[in-house]
Write a structure and sequence with these properties.
Number of helices: 10
Number of domains: 1
Helix content: over 70%
Distance between the termini: 38 Å
Number of strands: 2
């Protein structure tokens, strides 16, 4: 994944914007629900159950997507993407606008996304989608389940890229249907594309957000760890080779979290 410095910096900026946006949006959601006297936090048992459901959903979704790619069911996949992305955008705007305006905004953005948006336009909408998904997952999971999820995804990503290699199959099969599944940037001088998957943006943001809500200082440590993990990957990985980004970012986040607790204990 190694690329020129300018593109690496740009991708790091996108990464940072996504994480910071997720944290801020989660805080905004909590503030909005608090105003309505709605309690969002789940009990520890409910959070762990949600974690289990989430992991199962990710595995089932991966299996179904691989099946669809093998069968070349791209039209069906596009319809599913349209429905899912539309619902996510509606959820995003629902927290910001009255119902009728939220629906209008979601429809307009969705239409632009699939009809007129180029690569950079889709990147911008993708960031909104990632922020919405990441904030909801972080709020539903809470701190400890988010730590567990990060560890699980880091191991899974390594296996999926280097062992079973099905993640590479997914990336190649969806490169022409990259709606809301990835951020794609192009190196200016060499016109070479670099892609980071949506999960590699959402999952780091989930842990940073959940940790920040647990302790803002701890959240900052995890944030620094996430950025450092991605930076190491971007600046050391070989070009034209797939890497499990979460296997770099996740451990860096967990190490940073461990450093925080070690310092706090002294």
């Amino acid at each position: 994944m190694k690329t020129d410095l300018k593109t690496a910096v740009l991708l790091l900026i996108v990464f940072i914007v996504t994480i910071v946006g997720t944290v801020l949006f989660a805080i905004y959601i909590l503030s909005s629900l608090s105003t309505l006297n709605v309690k969002l936090y789940s009990t520890p048992t409910e959070s762990l159950m949600y974690l289990g459901y989430l992991i199962i959903a990710l595995l089932v979704g991966t299996i179904l997507t691989l099946f669809a790619i093998k069968r070349k069911m791209f039209k069906i996949m596009k319809i599913i993407f349209i429905i899912v992305s539309g619902l996510i955008l509606l959820s995003f705007f629902s927290f910001l606008l009255p119902a009728i305006f939220a629906i209008t905004a979601a429809v307009v953005v969705e239409f632009y996304y699939y009809k007129y948006a180029g690569r950079m336009g889709r990147n911008v909408v993708n960031i909104l989608i990632f922020i919405s998904v990441g904030s909801i997952i972080a709020l539903d999971l809470g701190f400890l389940p988010s730590v567990i999820l990060t560890a699980v995804i880091a191991v899974y990503d390594y296996i999926a890229v280097f062992k079973t290699k099905h993640m590479i199959t997914l990336a190649n099969g969806m490169k022409d249907l990259a709606y809301f599944s990835a951020i794609t940037l192009a190196a200016i001088k060499k016109n070479a594309k670099i892609m980071i998957g949506g999960g590699d943006l959402i999952f780091p943001a989930v842990l940073v957000t959940a940790t920040f809500l647990y302790s803002p200082i701890a959240g900052f440590y995890v944030f620094v760890g996430a950025v450092a993990g991605l930076a190491v990957l971007l600046l050391t990985g070989q070009k034209k080779k797939a890497y499990p980004a979460m296997s770099f970012i996740g451990p860096a986040e967990l190490i940073a979290l461990g450093v925080y607790f070690l310092i706090a204990a002294l």
